[in-house]
Specification:
about 100 residues; mainly beta; globular
Length: about 100
Amino acid sequence: MDLSDDALMRPFRMMAVDLPMKIRLEAVDPQHRDTVALVVGPVVLFAVGDGERKITRAQLMAAKKNGARSWQLETVSGVVKMVPFIGLGDEEYSTYLRVT
């Protein structure tokens, strides 16, 4: 592959990057392992809406994609909509959730 400046500046050059899109939970820090963010590949998902939620780790890990920029998960409190930052509007949201 030619990586000269001229080759990089040609119009319509594309590069494909294949990132693993595994679901995982990231703790806010080691002292608060029960406060986690839901991450899919490199994308953090935000819980839309306000209110206290009772969510388990298993429920977060079972989140299902239901649109181009939307995920949802079932909890005892009801359905929680999760979106990436670009999918947020004016609604309230939470990055980190406390799990039981």
